[in-house]
Amino acid sequence: MQTLEIKDFIKTKQDSKSHTEEEINFFIKNLSQFTQDEITEWLKAVKRNGMDDKETTSLTLAMANSGTVLSWEGLEPTIDKHSTGGIGDKVTLLFAPLIAAYGINVPKLSGRSLGFSGGTIDKLESISGFKTNLSTEQIKEQVKKIGLAICSASTELAPADKKLYFIRDVTDTVDSIPLIASSIMSKKIAGGSKNIILDVKFGSGAFMKTLKEAQALARKMVTIGKNLNKNTKAVISDMNQPLGYAVGNTLEIKEVLEVLSGKEIKDLIEIVICLAKEAIAGANLKPQEGNLESKLREILLHGKALKKFEEMISAQGGNLKSIFNPEKKAKYIESLKSNCEGYIQNIDALLIGEVVHELGAGRKSVSDQIDHSVGILFHKKHGDKVVKDEPILEIHAKCKEDAEFAKRKLSSALKFGQNEPGKLKLVHEIVR
Out of 13, 134, 246, 297, which could bridge 255 as a Cys pair, Cβ 3.0 to 4.6 Å? Predict the structure, then answer.
């Protein structure tokens, strides 16, 4: 194809017809030649009329090939993980050292906070000295030595996706399953790992609000991965309450260390073990002797994963002890107490995320500086019984005014009742 008339390209999708792979490749390669209005017309047509699996796979590969595509030759097998984001989601920080301690390499490229959802890189940067910007060669050398590196994704990975995402963000075309799936998977394909495990979340604290939406996204991403010869699986998990008890950068790092030191935090451990089991099986690796789940729990909770995490922090210049320095603590801590007796029936995870974001743990623009110390630490969660005036959570804020603001907002995030509610199901489906 020598030329592509953009008006014809747009009309194809407006008429609910399918693009050829050649058309999509030309469009992505020449993206800079089209106006924002033209690209927006096409995005809106995709949102309205969808894309089939062949089109979505072609779009994913074209965006991945728009920049650097990494290779971990000599380090395989490698496993990459992606979460669609949630509140208190510190799973990568447990999953990665667990897999590395099991004996599989994890070169993990992660991101920063997005909206109300926290970012792995922001959490790690609450550790003094920790370097998140590593070159490809530095990642390879570190993974050769210790089997693990978690660092920022390069701007050279899938640059076409970044341009499309910027336009989607300002034109109400973010919530399209084909566009979401190809955006996520283009970065996973560019990331180079042959084995990909996806944690697709749904609920009040997730970008996908319903199970049906999460299923559609998970199936689309797994299909893309398989079409591009990647061992890909997705775990569909609940995000109707925060994961674990800590929400906020430094607080979450502390909780990660607690789990790696043996503390039983049930929901965190359940999702981490589930993802690890599926990732190992998906990589077609013969499990080590004995029950795989028992083996993984032993690695996670009895020091081996902690040692791997400490090795990674040290290798990337971090001082893990700095987390416990007094200056890392929020300047003002305020408890929210129960005003009645009963059971916690519901926690509005989205509101929790928004409050933590407002406290300063997230960004309103790319240039904003975040406050690593602020956040929320829960004492009680869904299904727990409380008595009147019992502390339910702590607000960690930079000043009294912020804490009081958060307290007022959070009073509506918790619902109580006299009957003990049923247990929330965490893992709903595994898409293979």
Answer: 246
Catalytic residue among 44, 82, 233, 380: 82
Active site residue 183: yes
Using the predicted structure, report yes or no on whether residue 337 has a pLDDT greater than 90.
yes
Q: Please determine, for residue 284, whether its predicted confidence score (pLDDT) is greater than 90.
A: no
Nearest Cα neighbor of 79 from 277, 322, 354, 241 is 277
CATH number at residue 338: 3.90.1170.30
Q: Please enumerate in sequence order all residues whose Cβ is within 8 A of that of 45, keeping only pairs 6 or more positions apart, or say none.
A: 10, 13, 14
- Mean pLDDT confidence for 325-336: 93
* Active-site option among 13, 19, 187, 357: 187
Q: Please give the model's pTM, rounded to 2 decimal places.
A: 0.95
What pLDDT does residue 366 have? Answer: 66
Catalytic member of 89, 161, 371, 402: 161
Active site includes 82? Answer: yes
Q: Is the pLDDT of residue 30 over 60?
A: yes
In a domain, 174, yes or no: no
The CATH number assigned to the domain holding 118 equals 3.40.1030.10
Check 58, 183, 186, 373 and give the catalytic one.
Answer: 183
For residues 221 and 199, what is the distance between their CA atoms, to the nearest angstrom?
11
Annotation marks residue 89 as catalytic: no
